[in-house]
Automatic annotation (TrEMBL):
InterPro entries: Aminotrans_II_pyridoxalP_BS, Aminotransferase_I/II_large, ArAT, HisP_aminotrans, HistidinolP_aminotransfase, PyrdxlP-dep_Trfase, PyrdxlP-dep_Trfase_major, PyrdxlP-dep_Trfase_small. Residues 41-348 form the Aminotransferase class I/classII large domain. Keywords: Aminotransferase, Pyridoxal phosphate, Transferase. Aminotransferase that catalyzes the conversion of aromatic amino acids and 2-oxoglutarate into corresponding aromatic oxo acids and L-glutamate. Belongs to the class-II pyridoxal-phosphate-dependent aminotransferase family. CDD domains: AAT_like. It comes from Streptacidiphilus alkalitolerans. Pfam families: Aminotran_1_2. Its EC number is 2.6.1.57. This is Aromatic amino acid aminotransferase. One of its GO terms (molecular function) is histidinol-phosphate transaminase activity. The modification N6-(pyridoxal phosphate)lysine is found at residue 232.
Length: 368
């Protein structure tokens, strides 16, 4: 008889999936809070500097009164509101724990070991992570010299094993965009059994009229899915709610693979209240876009060359000077997001934060 003390102790703990080996870990933006109590602004996570839109906090607090209950698993209220807002059938909507949660479900639903997922690179840091977790093979395709998606190269990277393609538009972290004609040409050329995900997390900040709204592109394309979030323009990053618009087979698959009850009632109700607060939203987005334009112009005047951003951040390609630059910004009280050896992404924040950043950038430039 085997006693407890004789039970063999596993040498290496539980066996974990091989696919997880060497997985890149998602690096969250550093929290604000300078050394020695110095003021610090967090411009490292593309968050919205404004508090929740009018009425949203009250709605969320009311929802907090039912925290003993599970949320509505189907997000019926939010789905109905979104269907009306975008003029799409409710069956074409699927919600999730942030758009990154939906992106993960999309990969789960389409790709596994032996399959390939194509995306431009550098782009949103979560793509390689969620692809690797799925066991599929990531196929990153370098951006062009101008830091724009190279759609021709991405098309050339499609094989019979490709199951999904992410097109991040505007692209994180470069803020660059692909325009209507080139995107339509690309979508027409991609095989119809490959899902193309248009990740439009920053769409509200776009001012270039040639950048298409993915919702128009998906309508007659069953293999196109649009990904949106309440985390950026709507300022609900902390509540974790995002959604996809896709034809029924894809939207159904998302409902099958979503984490049950993932979107809290608080998040659902706050999202609905935010959608109903559109005038205030537009005002805030316009103010952030104006700040983006001011920051870009000031950087250009300082002598920096940077790609035009259509998002709520700017991108400075600094190469080997990236970490030094980020350290100089931190010393000035601004936390930015460095990608060592490549560049720095800086979120457009409140005016005071942007001014601090511009001051640090100017000082750094003078020291070059
Ligand atoms: C391109 C892109 N997609 C998706 C997300 C995920 O946002 P969330 O999960 O908060 O909706 C982000 C966040 O930074 C992003 O930059």
């Amino acid at each position: 008889m085997t006693t407890v003390s004789e039970t063999p102790v596993p040498q290496h703990g539980p066996r974990l999936r091989e696919a997880l080996r060497g997985i890149p870990t998602y690096k969250p933006g550093k929290p604000a809070g300078g050394a020695d109590g110095a003021p610090a602004f967090k411009l490292s996570s593309n968050e919205n500097p404004y508090p929740p839109l009018p009425g949203v906090l009250e709605t969320a607090l009311a929802a907090a009164g039912t925290l003993n209950r599970y949320p509505d698993m189907g997000c019926a209220g939010l789905v109905a509101e979104l269907a009306q807002r975008y003029g799409v059938p409710e069956s074409h909507l699927a919600t999730g724990t942030g758009s990154v949660g939906v992106a993960q479900s999309l990969v789960h639903a389409t790709a596994g070991p032996g399959d390939e997922v194509v995306y431009g690179w550098r782009s949103f840091e979560a793509y390689p992570i969620i692809v690797q977790i799925s066991g599929a093979t990531a196929v990153p395709v370098p951006l062009t010299e101008g830091d724009v998606h190279d759609l021709d190269a991405m098309l050339a990277a499609v094989t019979e094993r490709t199951r999904l393609i992410f097109v991040c538009n505007p692209n994180n972290p470069t803020g660059t965009v692909v325009r209507r004609a080139e995107l339509e040409r690309f979508l027409d050329a991609v095989p119809s059994d490959v899902l193309v995900v248009l990740d439009e997390a920053y769409t509200e900040f776009v001012r270039d009229p040639e950048v298409p709204d993915g919702v128009e592109l998906y309508r007659d394309r069953p293999n196109v899915c649009v990904l949106r979030t309440f985390s950026k323009a709507y300022g609900l990053a902390g509540l974790r709610v995002g959604f996809a618009i896709a034809h029924e087979p894809v939207a159904n698959a998302l409902r099958q693979t979503a984490v049950p009850f993932g979107v809290s009632q608080l998040a659902q109700d706050a999202a609905v209240a935010s959608l109903r607060s559109e005038p205030a939203l537009l005002e805030r987005v316009a103010a952030l876009v104006a700040e983006r334009d001011r920051v870009e112009a000031a950087l250009a005047a300082q002598g920096w060359t940077l790609p035009a951003s259509q998002a709520n951040f700017v991108w400075l390609r600094l190469g080997e000077r990236t970490t030094d630059f980020a350290a100089a910004c931190a010393a000035a009280g601004v936390i930015v997001r460095p990608f060592a050896g490549e560049g720095v992404r800086v979120t457009i924040g409140e005016v005071e934060a942007n001014d601090l950043f511009l001051g640090a950038a100017e000082l750094f430039r003078k020291g070059l």
